[in-house]
Specification:
Layout (H helix, E strand, L loop, with lengths): L1 H6 L2 H7 L1 E2 L10 E4 L6 E10 L5 E7 L8 E2 L11 E3 L4 E3 L4 E3 L3 E3 L2
Antiparallel strand pairs: 1-9, 2-3, 2-9, 3-4, 4-5, 4-6, 7-8
Length: 107
């Protein structure tokens, strides 16, 4: 396991995933940043549209080795939490900051 974890990380996963424009987000997509020594990834676990037609998404995370999965709160949009608005720019989670350019998907 130590061998696998040393090579299977956010850097290798990001390199294997494909870019997706933020407005094409789908459930199962990943916001991911590689880092040295640490990066982070969060998973899009749900999407919705509010009464005004705005798209929203929900994020979850865990850590390595495998731990409990957590739904992330939106501290910058407490009235929306745990939903995040779908828009260009920064996506700030409680423990990490992403940009819309960090969105990737599995083929």
């Amino acid at each position: 396991m130590k061998y696998i974890f040393s090579y299977a990380n956010t850097a290798s996963l990001r390199a294997e995933l494909n870019n997706r424009p933020i407005y094409e987000m789908q459930i199962g997509d990943v916001l991911i940043q590689k880092g040295n020594p640490y990066g982070h990834a969060v998973l899009v676990v749900n999407m919705a549209t509010d009464s005004a037609g705005n798209k929203l998404f929900m994020l979850a995370q865990s850590y390595m080795p495998a731990q409990e999965t957590q739904i992330l709160v939106n501290r910058n949009g407490k009235s929306l939490s745990p939903w995040y608005p779908l828009k260009e720019g920064e996506i700030i989670t409680p423990e990490w900051g992403f940009t819309s350019a960090d969105l990737r998907h599995f083929d």
